[in-house]
Write a structure and sequence with these properties.
The protein is of the alpha/beta class. It has a domain of 121 residues: 3-Layer(aba) Sandwich (Glutaredoxin). It contains four helices and eight strands. About 8% of the residues have low confidence.
């Protein structure tokens, strides 16, 4: 699980269109995936990300990935732009790229994500260190972010027994019926 994470994005909001994760090397990155029509994302995950972002922690970057695997026509870029404005989401948010005729977005498939919300913690070298499907407690997230921030370069946190995520209020938006 220590591979560098790469995003395939068709459009960026709150960032230059050539934005990429490599620009954030040297920082801890919280990468959160969501869909604007996912109840668990809107009720739990996005408010948590906003609370984390409000802390303005030096050395921490937050990046969102809108990864749509269902209801494509209802969640286009114009709708997402309004959603980001109304929910006051100011960190970079990319739109996961799609291939014609394939419902599953490119980055979601490449990373093997199970659905939304998902959360990935990346170390200073851009390597995935933790992954969660569903939501996790604020305290757990804070602990993991602090641990990564406290590491000296090149030192890895043990991968043994990663904490488990609890399901969202209505359950995570799972990709069971995607063809």
């Amino acid at each position: 699980m220590h591979n560098a994470v790469h995003l395939q994005v068709s459009h960026w909001f709150n960032a230059e269109q050539d934005f990429n994760l490599a620009a954030l090397r040297g920082k801890i990155v919280v990468l959160h995936t969501f869909q604007l029509l996912c109840p668990g994302c809107v009720v739990e995950a996005l408010p948590q990300i906003k609370r984390l972002e409000a802390l303005a922690i030096d050395g921490l970057a937050i990046v969102g990935l809108h990864t749509v695997f269902e209801h494509h026509s209802a969640m286009g870029p114009e709708v997402l732009a309004a959603f980001l404005h109304e929910y006051r989401i100011f960190h970079p948010v990319g739109v996961d790229a799609h291939r014609p005729g394939i419902a599953l977005p490119v980055t979601m498939e490449a990373l093997g994500l199970r659905g939304t919300p998902s959360l990935l913690l990346l170390d200073r070298q851009g390597r995935e260190r933790q992954r969660f499907f569903g939501s996790i407690a604020d305290l757990r997230l804070g602990f993991l972010v602090a641990a990564l921030l406290g590491e000296s370069s090149g030192t890895l946190i043990s991968d043994a027994a990663p904490p488990t995520a609890r399901p969202c209020i209505d359950g995570p938006c799972v990709m069971d019926n995607v063809t």
